[in-house]
Structure formats: structure tokens, C-alpha cells
Fold:
Amino acid sequence: MSSLKRSYREASARNRVQDLCDSGTFNEWLSPAERITSPHLAALGAPVSFDDGVVVGEGKIKDKRVVMIAQEGLFNGGAVGEVHGAKIRGALLRAITSQVDYVVFAVDSGGVRLHEANAGLIAISEIMRALFSVQQAGIPVIALVGGSCGAFGGMGIVTRLCDVIVMSEEGRMGLSGPEVIETVKGVDEFDAKDRALVWRVTGGKIRRTLNEAQVLVEDNIHSFRAALEDVTSNKIKKKSFTLTELAEQQQNLVKRSLMPSHIREGSEVWSSLGLASDEVSLMSVAQFNQRLAETTHE
Structure:
């Protein structure tokens, strides 16, 4: 099977960036050979990763120069610690000094690494500041969400700050993860074992419906790559920070705040749009995108 046909969700972070870039163009910075590991995990006797769970480097997509960042969800749930965060921040700042065309951020993280507490929280804030600097320099940041951990906690916020978000149906995005909500508020508030509920609240289809993700794709590397090509060729609208656009975003937030109180998850949102939840769950991504466009007149 071609590497581009395989599941994005099941691929490693390193395989994702290599396959998303033009063949042979990805050059990794601070590779595992450099042995840059977390001193905090080592001090606790916890397992370390020689790249601290994040891959950074530069490559090309359709000959556009791109800084690539990819979190490894299989290592500590892609959680952000001091070194992990420093690599991401450094890659973002290098995008500015190198004057690349785009930054692609393959997010796969539950948020802050609890082993590193305040160091992880500080790292998240530094990533946000660096991301704003990249956007101020006129370099769009494209987030990809389709890994096993999704984009939650501080990384959920970072993802929403990006210029374009590409998600698969299997991707998930939010602030607090399902298990966190259940632990704090109880199973009656949110049953984290109800997988259908989890995806109706945080999954790709509902995030696309609410336009929190701008593109919904199939779970394979080829589809994510095709979406990146569309963004870099300006077929997909990126954020702008004009007063007009900010006012439009504010109006959308006001509309969201005025939604009826009984609308709490995807099935109710789709019902309000005239779409049956069971019907939506059975739709292919292509069918869903077409129905959504017809319904919302995008």
C-alpha cells in the first residue's frame, strides 16, 4: 500500500511529516541522534524519548518552503513539557528568520505534561506567543488534527489560534478532554466511555459544522496532503485580522451564545440544521461536506 494511502491516525509523527512533504525534502532538526530529552522525566525515573515526543524541521509542499512540526501522541499522549515546548517554539521562531511560506503543525496532544507542571504551562504560553509572532510576520500556520490524542488542553487553544484547521472525522478537538470532564463533573455530565457522544461533542464532523475546523478530510495521509496543497495554492481561505473579519468572528460568537440551551452536542446541532444525527454518522466525509455546504450555503 502506498504510504499516502495509509491511515493518518495510525502513522507516527515522523512518518506523517515525511509523507506530507514533497519526497525527500524534509530535513529534521534536533533528531533523535541529538539525544535531546526531558531532564524532568529522567529525574522521576520515567521513560524518555530521544526527540521528546515532537518532530521539527523544514521541507517543501508543492515547492513551497514549510516548517513542519508534528507531535507524537504515542509518547506521553503528546503532552507538552519544557523541552517539547522549546522545540516547537524554536521551530516557530526559525520559520520567521528563515522566511518560509507556511508552518504546518500536526497536533496530537492531550495538553500539558503533568510530570512537568509549571514548566509545561510556561511552554504552552511561549508556543502561543511564538505563533502570534509567526502570523504577524505574514506566515500562515496550518493545524492538522487527526491523531489518536486529538488536540486538547493548552494544545486545543493553540490549534484554534492557527489560520486554518484541517481535521479528519476521527480527529478530536476541545479544551477539556472527555476523561477530565467526567472526573471533575461526574459520569452523568459526560460519559467518557460513550465513544459516539465523545465524537459528537469533539469530533471532526461537529467541529467542521461549527466552522471551528475549515476542512474535513478522510483519515489518510493523501487527503491531508491534498488539503495542504489546496491551502498553499490559496484555494482555501485563511484567517485575516482585519477589523471586518474580527467583527464577523465576534458576530458568530454572539450567535453561538444565543443558541437554545437544549443544544449541547452534535446531534442537536445537526437537528437544528435539518440533519438527522444517525444520518450524519453514516455519511462519508464527501457526502457530509456536500450536505453541509448545501445546508449552510458555504
Notes: The mean pLDDT is 92. The domain at 3-173+213-239 is CATH 3.90.226.10 (2-enoyl-CoA Hydratase; Chain A, domain 1). Residues 81 and 120 are 4 Å apart (CA to CA). The two ends are 35 Å apart (CA to CA).
